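Budget justification aside, the reviewers requested a transparent look at the raw inputs and outputs of the sequence design task funded under Objective 1. We therefore reproduce one unedited record. The lines immediately below are the structure tokens for a 349-residue chain.
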């Protein structure tokens, strides 16, 4: 089978490198173009950045020349964007207008009404917004987003529980890894032995995006889910993996055993099943009193499986638990590639 040519924008960064490693031997996609900023374009990949992942250095692409993030120089039918929101605001629409399906990790377009914001296991049907977007904007291609990494992790618990019981409100406190801030990100002097109780824009993203993803598709638009959600986001001295403590008031006030059973019984949207990057399980339950922990559990399912533990009664809201997920894999590169596989399987290319 001929593989589909793909480009990675922002290939030198934390997420970009994970894209390159995941795409190096992908059965459906052939990585043809690596692109980054003006600082890097024209350089060899191994000159422009330090490879910070395990496995083969630069995933075998060290000698590839970096292109600028311009459709004239780096267009492919599928484009993965690991750009920051600022540059993404101009660059992603340029690629979409030129005909690419752009799978974006940036926050720039996530909340636009005609942009699908997708976690395949939860809302595969929202991908149909691609058609609305193309018609409305007159683009040959389109932008498809995956959520903010903390939103993705929260959805590992909130998605299945909302589906099983309905939800009145949820409150969460995050402990977010340093790699979530990109490279070089937070300075060592600021984060070592410290907790930073502020991540700009993060709490608003979690609150809005969660309700969009769990919302209902009506008349080619998403009606956000009706529950209230409050997030408090913190940066902690962990390399990879966001840990979230969540309390929720669920419909019917289920006991902890019922909450656990609902999570065990969760069936992902069928469209997500056969995708190459889908993990063995969307979520796994931990029985130990002190798990999940980022150091031990974040790589489960190649960083694509969310881990849930400490399910217990909450004296204030009814139910509480801990969920952990890999910010740069499930929350970024892996999630984005899964979205592209879903779009191809759905005939959107
Ligand atoms: N890190 C995570 O865990 C995570 C999780 C979910 C979502 N995200 C989102 O993913 C995106 C990338 O994050 P990251 O952590 O990988 O950031 P990063 O490590 O700072 O990498 C940013 C990338 O964007 C490129 N870039 C910067 N300015 C540019 C410009 N003006 N034009 C073209 N390219 C430019 C950089 O290229 P140069 O090397 O040439 O400067 C680099 O390749 C962000 O939108 C972030 O919010 C990140």
């Amino acid at each position: 089978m001929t593989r589909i040519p793909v480009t990675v924008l922002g290939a030198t960064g934390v997420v970009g490198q994970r894209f390159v490693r995941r795409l190096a031997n992908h059965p459906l996609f052939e990585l043809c173009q690596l692109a980054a900023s003006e600082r890097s374009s024209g350089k060899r990949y191994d000159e422009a950045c330090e490879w910070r992942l395990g496995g083969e250095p630069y995933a075998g692409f060290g000698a590839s020349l970096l292109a600028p993030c311009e459709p004239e120089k780096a267009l492919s039918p599928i484009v993965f964007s690991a750009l920051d929101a600022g540059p993404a605001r101009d660059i992603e629409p340029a690629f979409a207008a030129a005909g690419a399906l752009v799978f974006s990790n940036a926050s720039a377009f996530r909340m636009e009404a005609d942009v699908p914001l997708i976690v395949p296991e939860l809302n595969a049907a929202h991908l149909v917004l691609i058609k609305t977007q193309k018609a409305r904007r007159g683009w040959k291609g389109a932008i498809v987003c995956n959520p903010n990494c903390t939103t993705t992790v929260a959805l590992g618990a909130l998605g299945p529980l909302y589906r099983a019981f309905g939800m009145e409100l949820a409150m969460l406190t995050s402990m977010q890894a340093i790699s979530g801030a990109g490279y070089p990100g937070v300075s060592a002097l600021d984060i070592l032995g410290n907790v930073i109780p502020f991540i700009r824009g993060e709490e608003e993203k979690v609150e809005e995006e969660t309700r969009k993803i769990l919302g209902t598709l009506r008349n080619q638009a998403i009606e956000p889910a009706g529950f209230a959600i409050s997030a408090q986001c913190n940066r902690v001295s962990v390399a990879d993996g966001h840990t979230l403590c969540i309390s929720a008031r669920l419909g019917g006030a289920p006991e902890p055993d019922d909450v656990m059973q609902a999570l065990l019984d969760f069936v992902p949207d069928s469209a997500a099943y056969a995708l190459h990057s889908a993990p063995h399980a969307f979520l796994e339950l931990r029985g130990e009193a002190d798990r999940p922990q980022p150091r031990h559990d974040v790589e489960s399912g190649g960083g694509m499986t969310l881990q849930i533990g400490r399910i217990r009664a909450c004296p204030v809201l009814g139910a509480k638990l801990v969920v952990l997920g890999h910010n740069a894999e499930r929350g970024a590169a892996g999630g984005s590639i899964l979205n592209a596989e879903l779009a191809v399987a759905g005939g959107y290319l």
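The chain has two domains: 4-148+333-345, 149-326. Residues 10-16, 36-37, 39-40, 49, 69, 82-85, 87, 105-106, 149, 179-180, 182-183, 327-328, 331-332 surround NAP (CB under 6 Å). Computational costs for records of this kind are itemized in the attached budget.
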